Amino acid sequence: RSKLNARINRIEPSMTIGISAKAKDLCAAGLDVLSFSAGEPDFDTPDNIKIAAIKATVDGFTKYTAAGGINELRDAVVEKEKRRNGLDYKRENICISVGAKHALFNIAAVMLEEGDEIIIPAPYWVTYEAIAKYVGAKPVIIETKEENGFIPTHEDWEKAITPNTKMILINNPSNPTGATYEKSDLEFIAKLAEKHDLWIISDEIYEDIVFDGYNPVSIATLSDYAYERTLVVNGISKTYSMTGWRIGYTCGDSEVVAAMIKLQSQSTSNPTSIAQMAALEALRGPQDSVEKMRTKFEERRNFIVNALNSIDGITCFNPKGAFYVFPNISAFFGREYEGKKITGSMKFAELLLEHALIAVVPGIAFGDDRFMRFSFATSLENLKEGVERLKKFVEKIK
Ligand code: PLP
User: Fold this and answer.
1) What is the CA radius of gyration of the chain?
2) pTM score of the predicted model
3) Is the ipTM of this complex over 0.85?
4) Could you tell me the residue range of the domain that residue 383 belongs to?
């Protein structure tokens, strides 16, 4: 008998986490590496939130809680979804999980059967594909085009549907491209889902990191069907710079939510008690830090998109959300850096780390080899220095 089961061999470790770890190791070894690979804001968690966690600890709020989260936090999510998106939920529609990633995993675990198809537009956050495969479902990938803003066309969506399709996944704004959906796109998807009796997962984790006045609507608001059949996934990691606290949530169908809570009750049990209290403060406390961080992100986005587009051979889509740019580097493929052939995004990223000491994530990690993901969740100074290093590196490509 083999040591590991077949299921675990269906998935690869997260490349983003792997590259960030490698960059950290090189830094620890004394090299001046600049990392643009992280999927997390560089800001500190706001003080009011930290204090709430300290208070919870000192007050002894350190025991098991209900598996699906404390009622106050579920209610705070209800209030937040009403306030932010105009969605009407009750406590029974909310499950608190150990991050949005855990929420997505649990949705897949309780809803997808072996062979069910889930439609995922590419470039995509690779975890979607991994989770689908792990539970035995089939990810059906829609390729998108840069010139369409990395959003599938209506025809693309229609063509991806088969009798086995159970779910559609949308991520708005998107990691890794920063692509954003117009309301009309979402209306189309909502109608299509209704026509084919499909469920929708709407990953809205970057909803507050948006630029140029873009204000995402949740697909769940667009029809009665969409409200009933959408599982809205969100969390506090990105908006409040709380990636390490591990709190995320799902809003939607109460039976799905109950099944997720049942699974949590037999696996993780509750999300960390004191992190739940911190999340409660994040959602109910002062919100001014959110806008402060957003403004910084927009300033950085403006800089990096211009800077990258000014480098010969690189073109960069201007994202309206999230904190990544996804420049096209395919013009360098087939050429050489110091005699080493650039075969694709992986090789490009490897050479970049080795010779320019900058860490990025190759596009292949997101299902499109022509690109690299460059996170601007770092200071403007680092971005400026990074662009200089990238420019010098690219100039040496023959
Ligand atoms: N969804 C997307 C698109 C993400 O990029 C991430 C984090 O990188 C998550 C969900 C997961 O967030 P968390 O598990 O920290 O709540």
Assistant:
1) 21
2) 0.96
3) yes
4) 8-44+289-395
